[in-house]
Amino acid sequence: MRIDIKSLHLKLKIVASIDYRIGLVLKDVGNQLIIDSLDFKRAIQWGLQDLQGAVRHFKSHGEKYGIDPERISVIGNSSGAVLALHSAQENEEQMRGVVSLWGATINSNHVKKIKSPILLVHGTNDNIIPFAKGKMLNLDSVRNKNRFMYGYASAASAFNINFSSPPFYGSFVIDSILEKNGVTHETYFVDGLGHEFYDREPYKTDVLKRIIEFLYKYMQ
Fold first, then answer.
1. 5-219 in CATH: which number?
2. Residue 148 DSSP class
3. pTM value?
């Protein structure tokens, strides 16, 4: 599920969508294909480098694109939200705002480094990226609930893929730390819903509305 760029562009002055390296590599071990913890960590590092490079590019070419280099925010969805959160933790390029749609971090201790305002959107029953603490792509939980609409789970079952994810700390944990440290943030947590739930109403309209209102508030 991708963020509705066209709708954002109608409300905001300039919106850019970037690509980033995935970094996950399937290893053939016996009769099983494995993606291990090092793959996840490498994927985050590569993607983070690409995101930070894009931000530096727009900041250094603000006049060319007609943007204020001091008024840049980052929006990430799913794996993109993981990168957005890690970028905020790195604090290399201070953002006016960070929007995390179903995101998490692999290091909860680094959340205390976050200074930028953040909007956290998450469903409490997310089995792909944990709402609280857990492994990314929690296939056992997905299988137990027969949630095979997620392509990750069905593909892993068909090809015997084992995702060996490190622990991830989701929006619930991040919210608690930000609250404790007095960091400006907003949350939209929906009880009982899973990953990327804004493909249906009323959530599709509500999520977009919250993103726009959040960015208008902190981009001024």
1. 3.40.50
2. T
3. 0.82
